[in-house]
Specification:
The protein has 12 helices and 16 strands. The chain is an alpha/beta fold. It has a 9-stranded mixed sheet with strand order 11-10-9-8-12-6-13-16-15, with helices on both faces. The chain has a 5-stranded mixed sheet with strand order 2-1-3-4-5, sandwiched between helices. A two-stranded antiparallel sheet has the order 7-14. The longest helix is centred in the N-terminal third of the chain and has 15 residues. The radius of gyration is 22 Å and the shape is globular. The mean pLDDT is 92.
């Protein structure tokens, strides 16, 4: 059992390599072990294919025969753009499969387990299930609720200000904190900002850490009034890294044409009563595109909207050791709380120093 646990934990570590890179598929890891020796390793490749199991089998070659496969998610049993992993495991001569949990995708969900057992492969499930579910929380949320998991990233002073009264914000946090933000981007499928952030900062929203080049994440602007400049970096570089503007319906085709010509995907969702966008509908639209993990980077209006709607699953707050004062821009606009009981609450799960700054990570409080 101790060997099973160590091999499954190794498979989970491999699966993490696919975060932000495997969507719309889950990030899965697989370790093949025969006679106590690891003979193959695999994880879901960019764009979701090849799958972890087929990668591990390819690397193991003939040594896969008679091996145990440790897989972080139930192997698929249906024909999609690739053949079923169950067939590949059987053809490779795998004798035993230890899987962390079932795949909630209705095309799988127990069918893979049955398919393996019908091929006389011994199957065990449930090892490290909680860790596997946490790792692919975004995939499960997309399948089960039609929404991605949302992490709200904020970077502020100790008093919660993100810019001076004049709008100066570069740089509140130091280089180590900014590098961590780039690493966070690489672990998410999509980066979401409001049009105010595009107008104020003209960001490119890419990961610029050498060695972490991956399939480009989707860059999304929530822009009900279509204020994004056609000259913005997100528009100008849409041919290199995918960009999407989500706006309200009703704009004339001539207003949308320059974005479409630049390669930007333009999508409409219903407005909210205040004239912004229905953020639940926006996230649902991203989920239908296959997005499982969203990093919301601001600004204050988007942060407040997500918090008011109860759509923030995780919160990553970078605090710089300084104070701007009440005249500075707040990290979130007003939440219009009628009572303290309505305040969004989170549970602290990690604290890390990053140079002079502190990153505190939270999860939604149950």
């Amino acid at each position: 059992m101790s060997d099973d646990l160590s091999h499954m934990r190794a498979a989970l570590a491999l699966a993490r390599r696919g975060l932000g890179n495997a969507w719309p598929n889950p990030a899965v890891g697989c370790v093949l072990v025969r006679h106590g020796q690891v003979v193959g390793r695999g994880w879901t490749q960019p764009g979701g294919r090849p799958h972890a199991e087929t990668e591990a089998i390819r690397r193991a070659g003939s040594k896969a025969r008679g091996a145990t496969a440790y897989v972080t998610l139930e192997p698929c049993s249906h024909h999609g753009r690739t053949p079923p992993c169950c067939d590949a495991l059987e053809a490779a001569g795998i004798a035993r499969v230890v899987m962390a949990m079932r795949d909630p995708d209705p095309r799988v969900n127990g069918r893979g387990l049955e398919r393996l057992r019908s091929a006389a492969i011994l199957v065990e499930e449930g090892l490290c299930e909680a860790e596997a579910r946490a790792l692919n929380a975004g995939f499960f949320r997309r399948i089960e609720a039609g929404l991605p998991v949302v992490t709200l990233k904020l970077a502020s002073t100790l008093d919660g200000r993100i810019a001076t009264a004049a709008g100066e914000s570069r740089w509140i946090t130091g280089p180590q904190a900014r590098r961590e933000v780039h690493a966070m981007r690489a672990r998410h499928d999509a980066i979401l900002v409001g049009s105010g952030t595009v107008l104020a900062d003209d960001p490119d929203l890419t990961c610029r850490i050498p060695g972490m080049e991956r399939a480009p994440m989707l860059r999304v602007v929530a822009d009900a009034r279509l204020r994004t400049p056609v000259a913005a970096r997100l528009v100008a570089t849409a041919g290199v890294a995918p960009s999407c503007i989500i706006t309200a319906p009703g704009h004339p085709p001539a207003a949308l044409a320059p974005y479409i010509a630049a390669g930007v995907a333009v999508q409409t969702v219903a407005p909210d009563p205040a004239g912004g966008l229905d953020l639940r509908a926006l996230l649902g639209a991203l989920a239908r595109r296959g997005v499982t993990r969203v990093l919301a980077e601001g600004g204050a209006g988007l942060a407040a909207g997500l918090l008011r709607a109860g759509l923030v699953d995780r919160l990553a707050w970078f605090h710089a050791p300084g104070i701007i004062g009440a005249e500075g821009w707040p990290a979130a606009e007003g939440l219009r709380l009628a009572a303290l009981a309505a305040m969004p609450r989170f549970r602290r799960v990690a604290v890390r120093p990053l140079g002079a700054d502190i990153l505190t990570e939270f999860e939604e409080s149950p």
